[in-house]
Amino acid sequence: MDYAQLDDRELAAQACEGRQRAFRELLSRYERPVFSLVFRMVRDREVAEDVAQEAFVKAFNAIHTYNPSYKFSSWIFKVANNMAIDRLRKRELDTVSIHGSPTANSPEEEERSRITLTDRGEAPDEYVENRELGGQIEEAMGRLRPEYRTAVLLRHVEGHSYDEVSEIMDVPLGTVKTYIHRGRAELKEMLAGATA
Known about the structure:
Blueprint: H1 8-16, H2 20-42, H3 45-61, H4 72-90, H5 107-113, H6 124-143, H7 146-157, H8 162-169, H9 173-195
Helix pairs in contact: 1-2, 2-3, 2-4, 3-4, 4-8, 6-9, 7-9, 8-9
């Protein structure tokens, strides 16, 4: 059987029957996006790797609880998000930089993980200004409550719909909208203070 040709729901059904190759295919599809989400939440590369790995182990052990009427991506992101929030609650993390310690990443990984404006056709001074703004945004994101940060990241960085964010966070749609509204308001206030 060519597992790469199956959709997520079919793979989950195969994994539920104990077919490890099906779960490995799901892992290969979602390893990077799950790590990216967790990394942006916990803001530490080693912790993100641990949490992402634990999330997949938990998902594999609980694959029978996946409801195929929902997107698999929402389910796995929900597992990972809950574990990231649990980890944030258990220990204080350095939230100054979204890309963890300066030595944790290669320059390419650091660049991919930054929330910043792209530098398409920018003059050098515009590039520097955008990098500084990106750093300010990262610092402000790190100071948001975990719920606000999750909602803003899922919606505006990962590009999920409000309904998907609601499903991933396991909160009502109205709560998601409130989290995003408050998160953006706090970001705006922090960024206004940073440039004043």
